[in-house]
Amino acid sequence: MTTHFSRRHWLTTTATILGSSPFWAHAAEKSAAPRFELPALPWDAAALDPVISASTIGQHHGKHHAAYVNNLNRLLPSSPLMDASSLVDVIQRSARNDAQRAIFNNAAQVWNHTFYWQSLRPKGGGTPPSELAKRIDADFGSLAALREATLSASTDQFGAGWVWLVLDKTQKKLAVVKTGNADTPLTQENLVPLATIDVWEHAYYLDYQSRRKDYAAAVFDKLLNWDFVAANLAKA
Ligand code: MN
Predict the structure, then answer these.
(1) CA torsion sign, 229 to 232 to 234 to 236?
(2) Which of 87, 95, 96, 205 could connect to 201 by a Cys-Cys bridge, CB 3.0–4.6 Å?
(3) Does residue 135 share a domain with residue 226?
(4) Number of separate domains in the chain
(5) Residue 78 Cα, ligand 1 centroid: separation in angstroms?
(6) What are phi and psi of 63, to 5 degrees?
(7) How far is the CA of 64 from the centre of ligand 1 (A)?
């Protein structure tokens, strides 16, 4: 009992001394890495039902997306990226660097998911705004052809990943690309992401089991936020 009390007393005293020391305070300030927060969903968790259920959204945002944010905040302070200026800066500096693979995976997944929520909206899909519709016709032939390219990419992606509508600045054309796991078009200089569909199983398994194509079709037809696509294209 006496030993226990003494030890606790010693720890309290030491913490007080360190806490009040200017050196300690300075060191704490210097090691302050950016901290990221889980962004709120742009709509109510039940708002996409029945295309994507409230339970899928609850798990996906509250567990998966949140875990990526927490992992990133845990990994950053002891990394060479603790002076990063933004999430995109973290992603671009850790890309293709094996030593920073865990940071890249979590940072990219934080960004990808935030972008995915914005790519969806209740009563989405349908006809794009007229300027965008013309651009889609010029670059894909038709909206139906873009839809087919999107569904093919979703089923061609082997394992977990993402399907993206992007602007390819080199080709000066809209394009559909897929990326595996956490990979994101942000790491390719010529690509500007315009919208994305998450094709990890956790995005659709509760609602569609293994029917990934049905999920991608339902998202394209009923949830895709064309105004978000148009706004991203306008500032690309
Ligand atoms: Mn996901």
Answers:
(1) negative
(2) 205
(3) yes
(4) 2
(5) 26
(6) -110, -60
(7) 7
177 alpha carbon – ligand 1 mean position (Å):
17
CA 9 to centroid of ligand 1, rounded, Å: 47
Whether residues 106 and 170 share a domain: the answer is no
202 Cα–ligand 1 center, Å: 6
* Nearest-angstrom CA–CA distance, 203 and 206: 8
pLDDT tens-digit map of 138-194: 999 999 999 999 999 999 999 999 999 999 999 999 999 999 999 999 999 999 999
Asked whether the beta carbons of 164 and 178 are under 8 A apart, the reply is yes
Which residues, by Cβ under 5 Å, contact ligand 1, an ion?
198, 200
Residue with tokens 């302050």: 32
The last residue of one of the domains, among 119, 140, 166, is 119
Q: What is the pTM of this model?
A: 0.86
Identify the domain containing residue 62 by its residue range: 54-119
